[in-house]
C-alpha cells in the first residue's frame, strides 16, 4: 500500500509541476501577448491572481512574479484607461507570492526591486468626505506611487497612495507606508516612519529625534 501511495504521490507532484510550467505567463505565451510589454525572461507563476488591464502593464526583462499575485489596472476589465501605461515594473524584480499591485493612475516600480509575500501596493484610496454616504459608494482618490530601484519590501508591507520611496530603501515587514522617503531609507511601523538612513559621512545611522514643541522654543 505504501508503494502505491508513493507512486501516486509522485505522479501527482510531477503532474502539478507540469501544469505550473505550462500555465506560467511569459512573453511567448498566449496570455503574454495581452500585456503592453513583457520583457525577455519574464515569468508570472501559475496560478496567477486577478490580472486585468494588461494593455496598461509593462514588466521589464527577467522579472519574476510569484504565484497568486494580482496585477490590475482600473476598477474592472474593459475600461479604457488612456494611451499611456499605468503599472510599470522594472527589470530584474521579484514580486513575492500572494502580493497585490493595484493601479489606477500610476504605480512605478524601479529595477531590481524585491518583495516578500503578501505585499499590497495601490495608488487609490477610499474617501469618507461625506458622512452620510457609505464609504464604499464615495468616489475614491488617486495619487501616484513610486518605488525606487534596488529597494526591498518585507512580507505584508502596505504601500499607500502618494508614496515615493527613493533608491535602495528597506520597508520592514508589516509596515504601512505613506509619504516621501529619500534614498537609502529604512522605514518601519504603522504608520511607517524613518528608523535608519545612510550618508557617506555617518554610514547607516538613526535619524535625529526632534525636540518636543515646548523644548524647541527654549532651544531657540
TrEMBL record:
Pfam families named in the record: Hexapep (PF00132)
Signal peptide: none
Assigned EC number: 2.3.1.-
Gene3D superfamilies in the cross-refs: Hexapeptide repeat proteins (2.160.10.10)
Coiled coil feature spans: none
Keywords: Acyltransferase, Transferase
Family, as annotated: Belongs to the transferase hexapeptide repeat family.
Protein name: Acyltransferase
Protein's organism: Nonomuraea helvata
Lineage: Bacteria, Bacillati, Actinomycetota, Actinomycetes, Streptosporangiales
